[in-house]
Amino acid sequence: MTTYEKLLNSDDSVLERETICDEDQRLNLAYENLSTIPKSLVLNFASFVRILDISCNVFSDVSFLKDFQNLRSLILDHNKIDENVIFPVMSGLNLLWLNHNQVAVLFPFVKNLQKSFPDLKQLSLMGNPGVPADIDDTTFYQHLQYRLFTVSFFANLEHLDSREVTSYEREEAVRLYRRPLLERLLGNSSNVLSSAYMTFNQLFTRGSNSQSQIANQHRQRSAFI
Question: What Gene3D superfamilies does this protein's entry cite (predicted)?
Fold first, then answer.
């Protein structure tokens, strides 16, 4: 019997909390082919769970998360989350994994993530269609621009994907994406930021030779950070 089946068949929520959730107050519902969480489970566990693993399911709607206000970590890898999903505000969430979903456009998706999770410290978006992979020198700068763009939204972000956020990345993110000024001057238009991100991507994908040289210089500089 799977964890999910045990929960559904349980008559004693207190007992199940002790047997299903570990000492970190983690609830694991991975690989259950779920598209939502039944209300009965939400009522029994939402106030108790600190770490929720619902990876490898078929979630595309996450509105049920509004009741999990004590969550600190949310693992949503390998689901059907796309750029149109709006998460409820969860100010206490520190870790969010959204690897291998269906996010094809980063803006305003990343901005909406920041509104929902203002204190996020660890974020992972690897394997989404809109996230450039750092495979070689021809994709390195696209990936770097993605990192800078994403970091610029989260003041407390410490880890993005598989790497820590460096002080150099933080400085460059502030320099390249001065959103407060742009938003004041241009009325907070989403098209402005989206266009800016696309422009930077285009600039850094021109000229494979010069791009390779810049990539090597950046890697050398990063080694001393």
Answer: Ribonuclease Inhibitor
- The domains of the chain are located at 3-195, 196-224
* Distance from chain centroid for Cα 30: 18
| E strand or H helix that includes residue 53 | strand 51-53
Q: Which fold has domain 3-195?
A: 3.80.10
Three-class DSSP category at 64: helix
Query: What CA–CA distance (Å, rounded) separates 71 from 156?
Result: 17
Which burial class, exposed, middle or buried, applies to 185 when counting CB atoms under 10 A from its CB (0-12, 13-18, 19+)? exposed
**Can you give the pTM of this predicted structure?**
0.76
ω before 180 within 30° of 0 (cis)?
no
